[in-house]
């Protein structure tokens, strides 16, 4: 059996061990496929991050396909059924790190573009592909930097299709039309160290921290909305004490994260936490890290095109969802573009034995081609 062009390209990408922020030659491979089709191919390297901007045509509207070539680390190699950077097909599944997140999606985008451009050399608007090698990392020198360059040049994106693995049970059952915001905090509570038998001479920061975390965890931040699940506060790490059971420690630390809807913003959440700490009289310092605000694409041309393209391949229409982690779509949405994510089934992403149904990659490529056709086709 010979592999389809999409499956063959996915295998070539998996063979390049591109753990964040290494691109390991993936973007050069893709650039070599797009340049002969008439794409203006532009590598943009910032720091140790490789980005590839490739555009076909000059006019509006501009449809952007967005993806990443980096992958997360493999975890223990001996737990994999086959080596993670040697693509293998077993029982109809393609195994390998990045098969689902998201070299499968990148391969499907490239072959969809190839078929579209070869079939319809004259089209309206422009088609672009943007790849970064820093989606799974700090995401500082990746899509965020490229959008700055595009804004300076006045290159405006109208629609952005992200290839992140959005599907849950079967291909195309869920597409994401928005994402929650993500705000992390690291709190250090200052107490006074002492002997547990003399608590009146000490101040226990663990007790202070516990009171604050309990209050924040019990707060109903909002009830969610038509498009967003309720805002959630979660504690991820708590540290205090040096192991001795007769010492009240001098400091206690915790890390927490908000995933929040459009009913909140960074400022309102920071203010709520700081005022809760003040109300409890807690002596603390909080460092904040904001990964991205929430965004939402309302039903419009892009959502309609994606829904129709999925239905014509799969026979069902996708459900719209804003659940899940953040993605690079958060850097494109603030430019005013409509952003939708459609990609493979996400059941095994970041796991040992990451895999995707091999035939899903061909069907995904057809779906992407259908979206391009509907938005830019003659
Ligand atoms: Zn991803």
Topology:
Blueprint: H1 5-15, H2 26-34, E1 40-46, E2 49-56, E3 62-68, E4 88-90, E5 93-95, H3 99-119, E6 126-132, H4 143-153, E7 159-162, E8 174-176, E9 178-179, E10 181-190, E11 194-195, H5 205-218, E12 232-240, E13 247-248, E14 251-260, H6 266-279, E15 284-292, E16 295-296, H7 301-314, E17 319-321, H8 329-332, E18 338-341, E19 355-357, H9 358-376
Parallel strand pairs: 3-6, 3-7, 7-18, 8-17
Antiparallel strand pairs: 1-2, 2-6, 4-5, 5-19, 9-16, 10-14, 10-15, 11-13, 12-14
Helix pairs in contact: 1-3, 3-9, 7-9
Bound molecules: zinc ion.
Account of the 3D structure:
The chain is α+β, with helices and mostly antiparallel strands and 378 residues long. The protein has two domains: 5-179 and 294-376, Aminopeptidase; 181-292, Alpha-Beta Plaits. Helices cover 31% and strands 26% of the residues. A hairpin with a 2-residue loop joins strand 4 (88-90) and strand 5 (93-95). Helix 3 (99-119) packs across helix 9 (358-376) and helix 7 (301-314) crosses helix 9. The two termini are 35 Å apart. Bound molecules: zinc ion. Zinc ion binds at residues 68, 101-102, 135, 164.
Task: State the main characteristics.
single chain; 378 residues; alpha+beta; Aminopeptidase; Alpha-Beta Plaits; 2 domains; 6-stranded mixed β-sheet; 26% strand
Spatial order of strands in the largest sheet = 1-2-6-3-7-18
Number of domains: 2
Distance between the termini: 35 Å
The small molecules bound here are:
zinc ion
Q: Secondary-structure element sequence?
A: HHEEEEEHEHEEEEEHEEEHEEHEHEEH
Coarse shape:
elongated
Rg (CA only): 24 Å
Strand content bin: 25-35%
Q: Just give the CATH class of the largest domain.
A: Alpha Beta
Find the structural class using helix and strand composition.
alpha+beta
Helix percentage: 25-40%
CATH architecture of the largest domain, please?
Answer: 3-Layer(aba) Sandwich
Number of strands: 19
Determine the CATH topology of the largest domain.
Aminopeptidase
CATH superfamily grouping of the largest domain: Zn peptidases
Uncertain stretches? none
**Tally of separate helices:** 9
């Amino acid at each position: 059996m010979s592999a389809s062009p999409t499956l063959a390209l996915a295998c070539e990408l998996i063979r390049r061990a591109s753990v964040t922020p290494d691109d390991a030659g993936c973007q050069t491979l893709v650039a070599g496929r797009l340049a002969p089709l008439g794409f203006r191919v532009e590598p943009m390297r910032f720091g140790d991050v490789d980005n590839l901007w490739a555009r076909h045509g000059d006019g509006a509207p501009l449809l952007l396909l967005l993806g990443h070539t980096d992958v997360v680390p493999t975890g223990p190699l001996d737990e994999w059924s086959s080596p993670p950077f040697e693509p293998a097909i077993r029982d109809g599944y393609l195994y390998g790190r990045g098969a689902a997140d998201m070299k499968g999606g990148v391969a499907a985008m490239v072959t969809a573009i190839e078929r579209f451009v070869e079939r319809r050399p004259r089209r309206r608007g422009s088609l672009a592909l943007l790849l970064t090698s820093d989606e799974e990392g700090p995401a500082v020198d990746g899509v965020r930097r490229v959008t700055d360059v595009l804004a300076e040049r006045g290159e405006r994106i109208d629609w952005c299709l992200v290839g992140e693995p959005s599907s849950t049970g079967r291909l195309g059952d869920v597409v994401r039309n928005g994402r929650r915001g993500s705000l992390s905090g690291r709190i250090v509570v200052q107490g006074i160290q002492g002997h547990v038998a003399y608590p009146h001479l000490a101040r226990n920061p663990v007790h202070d921290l516990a009171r604050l975390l309990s209050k924040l965890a019990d707060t109903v931040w909002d009830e969610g909305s038509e498009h967003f699940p309720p805002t959630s506060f979660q504690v991820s790490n708590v540290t205090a004490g040096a192991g001795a059971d007769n010492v009240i420690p001098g400091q206690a630390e915790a890390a927490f994260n908000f995933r929040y809807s459009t009913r909140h913003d960074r400022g309102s959440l920071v203010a709520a936490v700081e005022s809760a700490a003040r109300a409890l009289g807690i002596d603390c310092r909080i460092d904040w890290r904001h990964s991205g605000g929430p965004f939402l694409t309302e039903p419009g041309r892009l959502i309609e095109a994606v829904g129709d393209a999925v239905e014509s391949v799969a026979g069902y229409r996708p459900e719209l969802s804003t659940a899940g982690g953040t993605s690079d779509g958060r850097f494109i949405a603030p430019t005013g573009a409509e952003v939708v994510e459609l990609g493979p089934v996400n059941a095994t992403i970041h796991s040992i034995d990451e895999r995707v149904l091999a035939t899903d990659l061909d069907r995904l490529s057809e779906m992407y081609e259908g979206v391009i056709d509907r938005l830019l086709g003659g």
